[in-house]
Amino acid sequence: MTIDISKCKRCGRAVVPPRDICPYCGPGAGETIHLAVAGEGKVASYTVSYMPPEGFNSPLLLVLVELSEGGMVLCLGDTEDTSHVRIGGAASVYVDREGRYRYTPQASEGHRPE
Amino acid sequence: MEQVYVTGVGMTKFGTLDETITELAKSAALEAIRDSNALDAKFDYVLVGSQNPDEFTGVGHLSTLITDHLGLVPAGATRVETGPSAGSSAFEEAVALVKSGLAQLVLVIGVEKMSGIDRGAASKILAKMISIDSEAKLGGTPAALAALVARRYMHDYGLSRDDLSLIPVKAHKNGAKNPLAHFREEIALEKVSASKMVADPLTLYDCSPTSDGAASVIVASSKAAKTLGRTDDSVKVLAVGHATDYHAVQHRPCLTSLNATVSAAGKAFKMARLRPEDIDVCELHDAFSILELIDMEDVGLVKPGHAIDLVKQGETAIGGRIPVNTTGGLKARGHPTGATGVAQIRDVALQIRGKAPAGLQVKSPEFALTHNIGGFGNNMVVCIFGR
How far apart are the first and last CA of chain A? Predict the structure, then answer.
């Protein structure tokens, strides 16, 4: 299970989802390098949203994950159990069938996307 | 460079109102025109700041329509849109037009009418300012993004829930004395944490409302201010700074500071040749309680993590060293998005003129600052004013 990121040839910063132009350096840095990474990282912040927009169930766990390669990505979490989520906690990111980023706590190795 | 003045101001009540968007804009504009002695003046431009009148109200071509209804044809008319900082951006354009010599007298109106559609539909329109791919697609909302920021700020700086509640409590205390505010009742500290959870840790009282309302200011060259006989009661525009940040929160290098504010404020202070400690009163964009603390730090009033110290010492209250959001802020004055920036400018202009509502006047302020956010933590406009 990997996720796609881009890295800037000039500043080396990672961006998820990948971009052709580095948002930090601009077009002068040339096209970025696209690569697939494991999606391991740690929790930068999180919230349980009780007033999500139409089409989403409340409560909704949103987790901001900082990847080991650098770069952050906002993910949907499993709202069944939010007690394990904490800033700095281990996190694993995958992309679900609808193309959305998903958070799982790295500890639960058995957890696999449907 | 041409010195630019605010020669007059006007504002409607903010709240859930019966008037149409055109009536609101007209009412605020007429008050500003009268305040400027400009009933028979020739306006070069009418600039309207409004976030999304087409979708909120179904009314399009707003700047042309309002110019006609005010009897100001053939003034040039433009609508400016930068999300909820549209009002400040319209003001910025007016200042640029006068400074460049393209105009002598410009009418600026900020307006939004948000209550005509149901809350879900309004939230959907507002959510268009966040990243579709990285945030909205997951069910993210501006409140949820503010919650991510709030939780990280609390984690990094040890800010407590009760400390954060001091912000809406102060907002309502000031709003209670502002006759035009959306909310005019004081609230108890406990009510903030006990109110409905919106996005943990933020509750309903941490979030500004959606409102209807309009505000207006007249921007004039020194020659035009003289012609109007308004040189004594005009306020000087000392600086405007405007900056963006990366659209999605996940692409920003820091969660507890909004770099667009740092950039915009830096430009403004340089232009005004002033420092943050020179400011006597300010209006900061507190769409969510946590933002008032972060805004204070990013504008440079206090070091990161220490804004709450000033709040606890009463320094940001009326009578404190640096009063913040004297008329209730977005939380209590209300937040008709496109109108907010112009209302902030109107309120600090009244502070400088010594005409703030009873109980809200800061003692003879010399310099004032406004800070208006145009997305979630993005597209900021900072303005500085003086006597």
Answer: 12
User: Class of the A39-114 domain?
Assistant: mainly beta
Residues in Cβ contact with B26 at an 8 Å cutoff, skipping those fewer than 6 apart: B66, B69, B70
Arch. (CATH architecture) of B4-118+210-227: 3-Layer(aba) Sandwich (3.40)
Q: Which ipTM did the prediction report? A: 0.94
Q: A45: distance to nearest CA of chain B, Å?
A: 5
Under 8 Å between Cβ of B104 and B45? no
Question: Are the beta carbons of B249 and A64 separated by less than 8 Å?
Answer: yes
The domain limits of chain B are: 4-118+210-227, 238-386
Q: State which fold the B238-386 domain adopts.
A: Peroxisomal Thiolase; Chain A, domain 1 (3.40.47)
CB atoms B143 and A49 under 8 Å: yes
Q: Rounded to the nearest 5°, which phi and psi values hold at B235? A: -115, 135
Cα distance between residue B322 and residue A46, in whole Å: 33
Q: What is the pLDDT of residues B313-335, one digit of tens each?
A: 999 999 999 999 999 999 999 99
From the DSSP assignment, how many helices (H) and strands (E) are in chain B?
14, 11
- Band of pLDDT at residue B275, cut at 50, 70 and 90: very high
